[in-house]
Amino acid sequence: MFIVDTSDTYYLDKIYEDMDKLCSKYSDILSMKVIGKSVEGRDIVALKISGEKDEKNYKSKPSVLFTGGIHAREDFSVMLCMKMIDYYCRYYSEGKDFESYDVKKIIDAVDLFFVPVANPDGLNIVHHGIEASSNYEKLKTMQIWGEDHTYWKANANGVDLNKNFDDGNWEIRTCVPGTEIPCSDRFKGFKANSEPETMALINFCNENHFSLMVTYHCSGNCTFWADSGTHGMFNGLDEKIMDELNKKYIYRKTKVSIDPKIYGCGFENWFRARMKRPAFCIELSPFVEGGKQHPDNMFDKLVWEHAKSTGLFFAEKAAEIDDEIFGDAEKYAALTK
Ligand SMILES: [Zn+2]
Q1: What spacing in Å lies between the alpha carbon of 284 and ligand 1's midpoint?
Q2: pLDDT at 321 (0 to 100)
Q3: 3 lies in a domain?
Q4: Each residue of 158-194: pLDDT tens digit?
Q5: How far is the CA of 120 from the centre of ligand 1 (A)?
Q6: How far is CA 324 from CA 237, 290, 296, 332, in A?
Q7: What CATH number did the domain enclosing 307 receive?
Q8: Taking all residues of the chain, what is their mean pLDDT, rounded to a whole number?
Q9: CA of 296 to the centre of ligand 1 (A)
């Protein structure tokens, strides 16, 4: 029996409940930690899948971070993270391959971290309207871009979290006209790193030194895998990983993002610039104009069928990265000079 049910809308209270259920069912390999609180005081939870401890090896294992739900309305990304946790733990405990990946081998070699709901207040607004927010008095005056609250993309301060990270481009990062003040999407905040959800992810990364990071969004079935400010640092490694992904999966490889005024201050851009390691943004599901989302009951068909093993793909890459590049301190120092 699987715990995570993605046949229709996956509500926040059910998500938190499932996190508890998963951790007790798979207590030998799965654990969770609250890494911060949202504007409205909700827990921002990280889950860690960790296999056999390697007693002989004092060095910590390679690790990979997966993030979902930075943008409130993109709840397919939340469903994907939760369902991957459920499936990977199950296949690990049964010793079975998943989509030709040796789950046991991968999870014993690499620690997988997930922050499935990076913006819980935003998700609550998408599901229940701004009236359901404890910040309602503030939110009711804000502009909602799109037809209604289901288009909400920001956190409960009306800040687009994926434009709020201090990657060195915050001053020049532009807002689309009309989004220079708090609203439902595209407002970068009054200063960099201003939001508690932003800081929760930053602190978590600083504590853990992930080998690479993957952030799931919607829509477009494509990947944003490099930006001009950091691409040179990785000596082709980011592109090599992307080309491999391209061969196995449907996600179209886009061009390197060129203009920091337009790409700056996303979590993936921050991760590359500050952690000096590759980060990949995966846009799930077929492209829809204007930020409209597919119906929740289409998740299995539009997303899961295509993306279900991407977590294992990137976990394998995390191990290779540590061996190839970051295992060699001198080589790494030369790359990031
Ligand atoms: Zn997004």
Answers
A1: 9
A2: 85
A3: no
A4: 999 999 999 999 999 999 999 999 999 999 999 999 9
A5: 14
A6: 10, 41, 40, 10
A7: 3.40.630.10
A8: 94
A9: 16
